[in-house]
Amino acid sequence: MRFTPNMTPYIKDFPPESLPISSIDTIPEPPLNENFPLNKELQQILHGKQLLFENLQHPLEEIHQHYENGYITYRKGIIKTKSKTVCARCGNQEQSLFAHFPCARCGEEECIYCRKCIMMGRVSECTPLIDWCGPEPDCELTEHPLEWQGTLSPGQQHASDQVRQIIIENRELLVWAVCGAGKTEVLFEGINAALDSGKRVCIATPRTDVVLELGPRLQAVFPGIQVAVLYGGSEDRHLQAPLTIATTHQLLRFYKAFDTVILDEVDAFPYTADESLQYAVRQSRKEHSSMVYLTATPNQKWQNECRSGKMDFVTIPARYHRHPLPVPSFKWCGNWEKSLQQDKLPPAVTQWIKKRIDNQKQCLLFLPKIDKMEKVLTILRKTYPKIQAVSAEDPERKAKVQMMRNKEIPMLLTTTILERGVTFPNIDVAVLGSEDRIFTESALVQIAGRVGRSAQFPRGDITFFHYGKTESMVKARKQILHMNAEAKKKGLIDY
Amino acid sequence: MKETLARYKFRGDYVLARAFSPFIKEKLKNLNFECLVPIPLSPERLYERGFNQSAALIREAGFTPKDLLQRIHSEKQSKKSRLDRIHQNQVFEPLNINIKNKIILLVDDIYTTGSTLYHAARVLKNGGAASVFSLTLARG
Ligand SMILES: [Zn+2]
Ligand SMILES: [Zn+2]
């Protein structure tokens, strides 16, 4: 597609003065014509989004009329400056992730495109990003949509009040809640206040399984409003709901859409590693909007920003059941990889496992790598044939976790994939090779956080077997002790 | 391979054509041909894709694609069943270029039923080509 200087689009027979959108200096923004009969369906689909022509089923002519009458803006998909190329959709600035091709759409021999976000449709120099800039679609106000009978712990209540306040005042807040504190409930009052005043709210998380879990949970407490659940392959894509639950990846389609964005598990992969997801979150917020970050394990940078006062934060240092967090103990176990080569486990590890299995206490053993996990499995199965192992690529992952839940197996070996989300009511947990780089401070805090989750079984053992203590291990332990001390001081734990 | 091909064909990640060049070059080394002909796309499909995947494979392998055919109509191929495609009528027509006694190699990215290649080959044969054979990247 090329545009003439008066922004008439052509898809073939290009007039000589026409240009791909990236080469146009300033793209005019026609004033809003209030008498224009807008297409409500287009408004519904496009509001708060940044889409491509091919994402819309409406004819080009109709979309363009909305542009001419001030209801739609065109932005450059690829922004070129003297020094660099930037993708306006995903924020990619990594020059190696751009390529060019002889383009049949604009006729240019070298049309630059972004490889980073290509799975959502190719954005190139001749691709306009289409946003809605006309009036917002009408949305029905539901007064006090929250229907929830539960009670908050004092720690939760304190955090909940703050969340509510910053949502009303359009500010930012980090909620630092220990594993098992019940952080989702802390959001209810704030979301309620937002929805009550007609604000659009989004809960975003890097992980699809969290989206799948949160969707029904929030729909249950806000039964009167529509909740859109968005993840790769979901069907709610064009739904304009007051409350959206989405993977951070899905936010790449949004643009100035939300008054409130709540980002769950900020520290989780791939959000931390992928700048385009952070860009997506920024892009999805309205200019005046609030932002809540939720985490059990903020990384060092976040922790520093909290301590130095750069970032407003609130902690929930205690679990809902008012027992302290189990504190990891460290056990040196020598060169365990060498032991494995000789088909043996370090004696300390063997003893730890034997004790659990003899007492019929279920346990999890985390390992840094899949091949090590397989090796340990082979060794252990000689004595305990029912033990299972599960890794990220395992197609039977769900079934094995379920077997563990049903207590059909005494022990599960795993890589870091089970560090979050998955909880078993009464287990002990060990890490073999906790010195490995993969076990960061937050990974270790998360792993320790698997223990003692239920009120019925609030205690349990967490042991890090290592071949040399690391800073991450020490910091993880310190973080847990610190939270327990804070909880004690605030009177949030009884035991 | 399958994922790369899907990303290339359906997402239009042009540079991946280069990932397939070693394969194409290797195949072409042992073949005797005078023109490399990409399977053409309809104008609508070409706009949608932004480039012709088969032509890009030829070009990125260091050869020059030669357009000898065009599509007659533009029904969405991928929406039809395998059987429909085998029994459909001719979809290509020749461009007005002399191909008398030429040895022609047709290039396609995914071999689905063979009917596309069959129809293309027939048009070229009828136009006087000495022989027509084909090269595909993967079987669909
Ligand atoms: Zn991009
Ligand atoms: Zn182009």
Describe this structure as you would to a colleague.
The complex is a heterodimer of chains A (495) and B (140). Chain A has 495 residues and is α/β, with parallel strands linked by helices. Chain A has three domains: 2-132, no CATH class; 154-316, P-loop containing nucleotide triphosphate hydrolases (Rossmann fold); 329-476, Rossmann fold (3-Layer(aba) Sandwich). Helices cover 28% and strands 20% of the residues of chain A. Chain A contains 13 helices and 21 strands. Chain A has helices at residues 40-46, 60-68, 154-168, 185-196, 208-221, 275-284, 300-307, 336-341, 347-358, 370-381, 397-405, 441-448, 471-489, and strands at residues 2-3, 9-10, 72-76, 78-80, 85-87, 98-101, 111-114, 128-132, 172-177, 201-205, 227-230, 243-247, 258-264, 285-295, 313-316, 329-332, 362-366, 388-390, 411-414, 427-432, 462-466. Chain A has a seven-stranded parallel beta sheet with strand order 11-12-10-13-14-9-15. Chain A has a six-stranded parallel beta sheet with strand order 16-21-20-17-19-18, sandwiched between helices. A two-stranded antiparallel ribbon of chain A has the order 1-2. In chain A, strand 18, helix 11 (397-405) and strand 19 (411-414) form a beta-alpha-beta unit. In chain A, helix 3 packs parallel to helix 4 and helix 12 packs across helix 13. The N and C termini of chain A lie far apart (68 Å). Chain B has 140 residues and is α/β, with parallel strands linked by helices. Chain B has one domain (2-139): Rossmann fold, CATH 3.40.50.2020. Chain B has helices at 2-9, 16-29, 43-49, 53-60, 82-87, 115-126, and strands at 35-38, 69-71, 92-94, 103-111, 131-139. Chain B has a three-stranded parallel beta sheet with strand order 1-4-5, with helices on both faces. A two-stranded antiparallel sheet of chain B has the order 2-3. In chain B, strand 4 (103-111), helix 6 (115-126) and strand 5 (131-139) form a beta-alpha-beta unit. The model of chain B has no long low-confidence stretch (mean pLDDT 84). The chains are: A alpha/beta (495), B alpha/beta (140). Chains A and B meet through strand 6 of A and helix 3 of B. The complex binds zinc ion (ZN) (2 copies). One zinc ion binds next to loops of chain A. One zinc ion binds at residues 87, 89-90, 92, 114, 116-117, 123 of chain A.
